[in-house]
């Protein structure tokens, strides 16, 4: 099996779980993710200089994220970003691919409470992809977690203007209002953020 065939096989095992959220066979999922990860690792080990290496680290980051192992996910996306940076300098990939890797790191920084890093990577990615509303969304949530309410609100409003359906930035606006009205405390984790959503009525806000 060629490296491209192995890469596609590993992707096909992973991709269904990136979109499917309900009625998942957890035993089958664990089996598929293990086989998928082993495939990506095999490519990295056998073809370390291949252009697919960065993509493999990216996919492994996705697998760890599905497993809620955000520390390892963060590490994998960092490895991917470092390779993408060299490829970008060599003009072998687009700026969008490079910025996407930093967006993924920014999200994992949020999940691992690396808030200053999350801000850095989101802002850096925005320099390459200024129209990417998801970066603004991540940045608004980060500012909220840091307790920088006015900054969080300003960024969330900017995100909403670009994409009114974005749920995280809409939730940030709701959260800022609730915090300033002393209804709740500043959320520090995604669990806290989720509780805000469950306990609030965003539709009528």
Structural class: mainly alpha
Radius of gyration equals 18 Å
Into which percentage range does the β-strand content fall? Answer: under 5%
Q: Mean pLDDT, nearest integer?
A: 91
| Biggest sheet record | none
Which descriptor suits the 3D outline? globular
Query: What's the total count of β strands?
Result: 0
By DSSP (H or I, 4+ residues per run), the number of helices equals 10
Low-confidence stretches: none
Distance between the termini: 55 Å
SSE run? HHHHHHHHHH
**Share of helical residues:** over 70%
Secondary structure elements and pairings:
Elements: H1 3-19, H2 26-46, H3 52-66, H4 70-89, H5 95-111, H6 115-128, H7 133-145, H8 149-162, H9 167-180, H10 190-199
Helix pairs in contact: 1-2, 1-3, 2-3, 3-4, 4-5, 5-6, 5-7, 6-7, 7-8, 7-9, 8-9
Keywords:
205 residues; mainly alpha; 10 helices; 76% helix; globular
Please, could you describe this protein's structure?
- With 205 residues, the protein is mainly α.
- The chain has a domain at 1-93.
- It contains ten helices and no strands.
- It has helices at residues 3-19, 26-46, 52-66, 70-89, 95-111, 115-128, 133-145, 149-162, 167-180, 190-199.
- The protein is globular and about 60 Å long.
